[in-house]
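Support request, priority: normal
Reporter: lab tech (M.K.)
Component: structure prediction queue

Hi team, I submitted a job for Lipoprotein from Kibdelosporangium aridum yesterday, and the status page still shows it as pending. I've pasted the exact input below so you can check whether something in the sequence is tripping the parser. The sequence length should be 133 residues. Please let me know if I need to resubmit or if it's stuck on your end.
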Amino acid sequence: MRNKFALAVVGVTGASVLMACSSSESKFADELKAAGFGTVQPTTETEKKTKKVGTKTVKSSTKVLEAVVRVKGCDLEFEKVSGQSGYWLDELHVNGQEPEWPGYPENLRRQQVEAMLADSSQKPAGFASCYRP
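Reply from support: The job had stalled in the queue. We restarted it manually and it finished. Here are the results:
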């Protein structure tokens, strides 16, 4: 009887963790859609860190939400730390590469991204091969 109960608790806990991840992803996708972006492909990545404090090792992890959107022929990756407000433009996905976006602009709406792609500001390597005005 105890084994069945423990198994049920583990199953419910696992399901709630999966729902929390998908809930965060869908909220981030909704946030980007509200900013004017169309099709959003969200994913989650966990960054784990360890730090030595005296004789003990302290482990921590941060959940980073990522979403790829297509604007003017370019696949742009936005990121957000789960549980915090705001997001930033992180990378350009082009020719199998993922160069970092200079300056990591924050909380951009679609119109602002289109204007930034068209202006003379610094762009990552490979930008010219994907951009279609």
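The longest strand covers residues 56-71. Confidence is low (pLDDT under 50) at residues 4-21. Let us know if anything else looks off. Ticket resolved.
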